[in-house]
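Morning run. Coffee first, then this:
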Amino acid sequence: NTHNFSKRQLEELFNSFESDEGKFPEKLAITMKNYDSIFSAWDGEDLVGVVCVMDDGLINAYVHYLLVKPEYRLKGIGKQLAERVKNHYKDYLHIVIIANDSELRFYEYCGFEKLQNSTPMHVINR
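And here it is:
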């Protein structure tokens, strides 16, 4: 459970997904220090996966990122990161993640369930 990553490590991880966040490694480095819990996966000095969680201290935990570099997928890393979150927050009532439709099967495999009659929403400021 570390909050210390170099800008380069974060930039490489986020850019492996062509995400907007990868364009702002300085902001990512600061952001990572603000999460309540971060679990990471490494190959030597190479950051290959990360899961970041915010929580309210007792009832709700919100998974914001669960990322594994594409070349490290299908090796159980994402599942292990999800299990670490579920174990760490086992006494909370809710562990919530907003999943892209293409990722639903993975999160169901990890034990998450799609809520009926719910639609995730957000505002993107650019």
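The mean pLDDT is 90. Good start to the day.
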